[in-house]
Amino acid sequence: MGGSGEKPQLIVDGKRLDGRAFDELRPIRIEADVLKNAEGSAYLEWGDNKVLAAVYGPKEAQPKHIADPNRAIIKCRYQMAPFSSLEEHGRTGPNRRAIEISKVTKEVFENVILLDQFPGSEIDIFVEVLQSDGGTRAAGITAAAVALASSGIPMRDIPYAVSAGRIGEHMVLDVNKIEDNYSDADMPVAIAPRSGDMLLLQMDGALTKEQVSEGLAMVRKAGETIVRAQREALEAKYR
Ligand code: CDP
Fold first, then answer.
1. Can the peptide bond before residue 63 be classed as cis, meaning omega within 30 degrees of 0?
2. pLDDT at 94 over 90
3. 169 partner at 20 to 30 Å CA-CA among 83, 116, 187, 196?
4. Do the bridges between strand 121-131 and strand 73-80 make them parallel or antiparallel, or are there none, so unpaired?
5. Quick check: 28 and 233 in contact, CB under 8 A?
6. Which alpha helices (H) appear in the chain, and where do they start and end?
7. What is the C-alpha to C-alpha distance for residues 141 and 109, in angstroms, rounded to an integer?
8. Which CATH number fits the domain 16-236, given the four candidates 3.40.50.300, 1.10.10.10, 3.40.640.10, 3.30.230.70?
9. Mean pLDDT computed over 28-38
10. How far is the CA of 222 from the centre of ligand 1 (A)?
Protein backbone atom coordinates (compact mmCIF):
# COMPACT_ATOMS: atom_id res chain seq x y z
CA MET A 1 0.00 0.00 0.00
CA GLY A 2 0.97 3.59 -0.43
CA GLY A 3 3.38 3.17 -3.33
CA SER A 4 4.09 6.04 -5.62
CA GLY A 5 5.14 6.07 -9.21
CA GLU A 6 4.17 3.55 -11.83
CA LYS A 7 2.79 0.34 -10.46
CA PRO A 8 4.91 -2.68 -11.41
CA GLN A 9 3.23 -5.89 -12.44
CA LEU A 10 3.40 -7.92 -9.23
CA ILE A 11 2.21 -11.22 -10.71
CA VAL A 12 3.74 -12.64 -13.86
CA ASP A 13 2.66 -16.03 -15.24
CA GLY A 14 0.89 -16.93 -12.00
CA LYS A 15 4.01 -16.29 -9.89
CA ARG A 16 5.06 -13.35 -7.74
CA LEU A 17 8.11 -11.25 -8.63
CA ASP A 18 10.37 -13.26 -6.32
CA GLY A 19 9.11 -16.51 -7.85
CA ARG A 20 6.80 -17.46 -4.98
CA ALA A 21 3.40 -19.07 -5.34
CA PHE A 22 0.47 -17.08 -3.90
CA ASP A 23 0.44 -19.07 -0.65
CA GLU A 24 4.21 -19.41 -0.26
CA LEU A 25 6.23 -18.02 2.65
CA ARG A 26 9.65 -16.48 2.27
CA PRO A 27 12.37 -18.67 3.84
CA ILE A 28 12.53 -18.36 7.64
CA ARG A 29 15.53 -19.05 9.87
CA ILE A 30 15.52 -18.45 13.62
CA GLU A 31 18.21 -18.78 16.25
CA ALA A 32 17.32 -18.63 19.94
CA ASP A 33 19.39 -17.23 22.78
CA VAL A 34 21.89 -15.12 20.83
CA LEU A 35 22.51 -12.32 23.36
CA LYS A 36 24.49 -12.93 26.52
CA ASN A 37 23.02 -10.13 28.63
CA ALA A 38 19.35 -10.60 27.82
CA GLU A 39 17.18 -13.06 29.74
CA GLY A 40 15.90 -14.33 26.42
CA SER A 41 16.66 -13.47 22.82
CA ALA A 42 16.28 -14.52 19.22
CA TYR A 43 17.66 -13.62 15.83
CA LEU A 44 15.38 -14.13 12.86
CA GLU A 45 15.90 -13.93 9.12
CA TRP A 46 12.69 -14.01 7.12
CA GLY A 47 13.25 -13.33 3.44
CA ASP A 48 15.25 -10.12 3.47
CA ASN A 49 14.09 -9.12 6.95
CA LYS A 50 16.64 -9.40 9.75
CA VAL A 51 15.34 -8.93 13.27
CA LEU A 52 16.76 -9.22 16.77
CA ALA A 53 14.47 -9.64 19.76
CA ALA A 54 15.54 -9.39 23.40
CA VAL A 55 13.63 -9.90 26.63
CA TYR A 56 14.41 -8.66 30.14
CA GLY A 57 12.51 -9.47 33.33
CA PRO A 58 10.33 -10.10 35.14
CA LYS A 59 11.83 -7.39 37.37
CA GLU A 60 10.41 -4.73 39.66
CA ALA A 61 8.29 -2.33 37.60
CA GLN A 62 9.87 1.11 37.23
CA PRO A 63 8.80 3.81 37.84
CA LYS A 64 6.86 2.41 40.79
CA HIS A 65 3.59 4.16 40.00
CA ILE A 66 3.17 2.15 36.79
CA ALA A 67 3.33 -1.16 38.69
CA ASP A 68 0.18 -3.26 38.86
CA PRO A 69 -0.12 -5.04 42.22
CA ASN A 70 -2.00 -7.90 40.58
CA ARG A 71 0.09 -8.71 37.54
CA ALA A 72 3.17 -7.96 35.51
CA ILE A 73 3.09 -5.16 32.97
CA ILE A 74 4.77 -5.42 29.59
CA LYS A 75 6.84 -2.74 27.96
CA CYS A 76 7.61 -3.18 24.30
CA ARG A 77 9.85 -1.22 21.99
CA TYR A 78 9.91 -1.96 18.28
CA GLN A 79 12.50 0.00 16.36
CA MET A 80 13.93 0.06 12.87
CA ALA A 81 17.67 0.60 12.77
CA PRO A 82 18.60 3.73 10.80
CA PHE A 83 20.42 1.52 8.29
CA SER A 84 17.61 -1.01 7.91
CA SER A 85 16.10 0.34 4.71
CA LEU A 86 16.64 2.74 1.85
CA GLU A 87 13.90 5.00 3.14
CA GLU A 88 14.47 8.09 5.25
CA HIS A 89 15.32 7.43 8.90
CA GLY A 90 16.60 10.90 9.71
CA ARG A 91 14.60 11.33 12.93
CA THR A 92 15.77 9.95 16.19
CA GLY A 93 13.33 8.41 18.65
CA PRO A 94 10.22 6.42 17.84
CA ASN A 95 7.97 7.65 15.05
CA ARG A 96 4.22 7.08 14.93
CA ARG A 97 4.60 3.81 13.10
CA ALA A 98 7.10 2.44 15.62
CA ILE A 99 4.80 3.46 18.49
CA GLU A 100 1.89 1.67 16.84
CA ILE A 101 3.87 -1.51 16.17
CA SER A 102 5.25 -1.48 19.73
CA LYS A 103 1.67 -1.22 21.02
CA VAL A 104 0.23 -4.05 18.97
CA THR A 105 3.21 -6.27 19.76
CA LYS A 106 2.72 -5.63 23.47
CA GLU A 107 -0.96 -6.51 23.16
CA VAL A 108 -0.15 -9.81 21.47
CA PHE A 109 2.03 -10.89 24.39
CA GLU A 110 -0.32 -9.57 27.09
CA ASN A 111 -2.69 -12.27 25.94
CA VAL A 112 -0.31 -15.21 26.27
CA ILE A 113 2.14 -14.42 29.09
CA LEU A 114 0.94 -15.58 32.54
CA LEU A 115 1.12 -12.03 33.90
CA ASP A 116 -0.60 -12.75 37.20
CA GLN A 117 2.33 -14.89 38.29
CA PHE A 118 4.50 -11.75 38.58
CA PRO A 119 2.57 -9.03 40.42
CA GLY A 120 4.29 -5.66 40.59
CA SER A 121 6.85 -6.53 37.97
CA GLU A 122 7.61 -5.60 34.38
CA ILE A 123 8.73 -7.58 31.37
CA ASP A 124 10.60 -5.69 28.65
CA ILE A 125 10.47 -6.77 25.03
CA PHE A 126 12.78 -5.16 22.48
CA VAL A 127 12.50 -5.70 18.75
CA GLU A 128 15.27 -4.26 16.59
CA VAL A 129 14.83 -4.43 12.85
CA LEU A 130 18.30 -4.59 11.32
CA GLN A 131 17.14 -5.01 7.74
CA SER A 132 13.60 -4.55 6.50
CA ASP A 133 11.71 -5.84 3.51
CA GLY A 134 8.04 -5.71 4.45
CA GLY A 135 6.31 -7.65 7.19
CA THR A 136 8.61 -6.56 9.98
CA ARG A 137 5.85 -6.38 12.60
CA ALA A 138 5.08 -10.05 11.91
CA ALA A 139 8.77 -10.92 11.92
CA GLY A 140 9.23 -9.00 15.18
CA ILE A 141 6.34 -10.79 16.90
CA THR A 142 7.57 -14.18 15.68
CA ALA A 143 11.09 -13.45 16.93
CA ALA A 144 9.93 -11.96 20.25
CA ALA A 145 7.88 -15.10 20.90
CA VAL A 146 11.04 -17.21 20.64
CA ALA A 147 12.96 -14.72 22.80
CA LEU A 148 10.25 -14.93 25.47
CA ALA A 149 10.16 -18.71 25.35
CA SER A 150 13.95 -18.83 25.64
CA SER A 151 13.76 -16.57 28.71
CA GLY A 152 11.58 -19.12 30.46
CA ILE A 153 8.77 -16.64 31.11
CA PRO A 154 5.63 -18.79 31.29
CA MET A 155 3.25 -18.44 28.38
CA ARG A 156 0.04 -20.18 27.45
CA ASP A 157 1.17 -20.33 23.86
CA ILE A 158 4.04 -19.23 21.58
CA PRO A 159 2.49 -16.85 19.06
CA TYR A 160 3.50 -16.40 15.46
CA ALA A 161 2.56 -13.71 12.97
CA VAL A 162 2.47 -13.32 9.22
CA SER A 163 0.73 -11.04 6.80
CA ALA A 164 -1.69 -11.85 3.98
CA GLY A 165 -2.40 -9.38 1.23
CA ARG A 166 -4.32 -8.82 -1.95
CA ILE A 167 -2.83 -8.21 -5.36
CA GLY A 168 -5.74 -7.49 -7.70
CA GLU A 169 -8.08 -10.46 -7.36
CA HIS A 170 -5.47 -12.72 -5.75
CA MET A 171 -4.86 -13.25 -2.04
CA VAL A 172 -1.15 -13.74 -1.32
CA LEU A 173 0.77 -14.77 1.77
CA ASP A 174 3.70 -13.02 3.45
CA VAL A 175 3.74 -9.72 1.60
CA ASN A 176 7.20 -8.31 0.92
CA LYS A 177 8.18 -4.68 0.57
CA ILE A 178 7.50 -4.14 -3.12
CA GLU A 179 4.22 -6.01 -2.82
CA ASP A 180 3.33 -3.96 0.24
CA ASN A 181 4.02 -0.75 -1.66
CA TYR A 182 1.82 -1.58 -4.61
CA SER A 183 -0.65 -4.19 -3.36
CA ASP A 184 -4.35 -3.50 -2.85
CA ALA A 185 -4.52 -4.70 0.75
CA ASP A 186 -2.28 -5.94 3.55
CA MET A 187 -3.53 -7.85 6.61
CA PRO A 188 -1.01 -8.72 9.34
CA VAL A 189 -2.26 -11.45 11.66
CA ALA A 190 -0.87 -13.00 14.87
CA ILE A 191 -2.11 -16.35 16.10
CA ALA A 192 -1.71 -18.41 19.26
CA PRO A 193 -1.24 -21.80 17.60
CA ARG A 194 -2.34 -24.04 20.46
CA SER A 195 -5.63 -22.29 21.19
CA GLY A 196 -6.08 -21.00 17.66
CA ASP A 197 -6.88 -17.56 19.13
CA MET A 198 -6.24 -14.55 16.93
CA LEU A 199 -4.07 -12.07 18.83
CA LEU A 200 -3.69 -9.42 16.14
CA LEU A 201 -5.60 -8.53 13.02
CA GLN A 202 -4.83 -5.33 11.21
CA MET A 203 -5.89 -4.32 7.75
CA ASP A 204 -4.67 -1.72 5.31
CA GLY A 205 -6.83 -1.56 2.17
CA ALA A 206 -10.09 -3.23 1.27
CA LEU A 207 -10.95 -6.94 1.42
CA THR A 208 -14.24 -8.76 1.00
CA LYS A 209 -15.37 -11.20 3.70
CA GLU A 210 -14.37 -14.07 1.42
CA GLN A 211 -10.93 -12.58 0.85
CA VAL A 212 -10.41 -12.17 4.60
CA SER A 213 -11.34 -15.83 5.09
CA GLU A 214 -9.00 -16.90 2.30
CA GLY A 215 -6.17 -14.82 3.76
CA LEU A 216 -6.74 -16.23 7.25
CA ALA A 217 -6.73 -19.78 5.90
CA MET A 218 -3.35 -19.08 4.27
CA VAL A 219 -2.04 -17.60 7.51
CA ARG A 220 -3.13 -20.59 9.59
CA LYS A 221 -1.67 -23.07 7.11
CA ALA A 222 1.63 -21.18 7.02
CA GLY A 223 1.55 -21.25 10.81
CA GLU A 224 2.66 -24.87 10.69
CA THR A 225 5.92 -23.87 8.99
CA ILE A 226 6.52 -20.81 11.17
CA VAL A 227 5.81 -22.71 14.39
CA ARG A 228 8.21 -25.46 13.27
CA ALA A 229 10.96 -22.86 12.72
CA GLN A 230 10.29 -21.41 16.18
CA ARG A 231 10.29 -24.83 17.83
CA GLU A 232 13.47 -25.93 16.04
CA ALA A 233 15.25 -22.77 17.19
CA LEU A 234 14.31 -23.52 20.80
CA GLU A 235 15.09 -27.22 20.57
CA ALA A 236 18.52 -26.50 19.11
CA LYS A 237 19.36 -24.58 22.31
CA TYR A 238 17.54 -26.52 24.97
CA ARG A 239 17.41 -30.13 23.86
O1 CDP B 1 7.07 -3.93 8.21
P2 CDP B 1 5.58 -3.98 8.20
O3 CDP B 1 5.03 -4.52 6.91
O4 CDP B 1 5.02 -4.66 9.40
O5 CDP B 1 5.08 -2.48 8.36
P6 CDP B 1 4.66 -1.38 7.26
O7 CDP B 1 4.46 -0.10 8.01
O8 CDP B 1 3.54 -1.90 6.43
O9 CDP B 1 5.96 -1.20 6.37
C10 CDP B 1 6.23 -2.00 5.29
C11 CDP B 1 7.70 -1.94 4.95
O12 CDP B 1 8.05 -0.64 4.52
C13 CDP B 1 8.65 -2.23 6.11
O14 CDP B 1 8.82 -3.59 6.38
C15 CDP B 1 9.92 -1.60 5.58
O16 CDP B 1 10.55 -2.47 4.67
C17 CDP B 1 9.39 -0.38 4.85
N18 CDP B 1 9.50 0.83 5.66
C19 CDP B 1 10.70 1.51 5.66
O20 CDP B 1 11.62 1.06 5.00
N21 CDP B 1 10.85 2.64 6.38
C22 CDP B 1 9.84 3.11 7.13
N23 CDP B 1 10.02 4.22 7.84
C24 CDP B 1 8.63 2.44 7.14
C25 CDP B 1 8.47 1.29 6.40
1. yes
2. no
3. 196
4. parallel
5. no
6. 96-110, 136-151, 177-182, 209-238
7. 9
8. 3.30.230.70
9. 98
10. 21
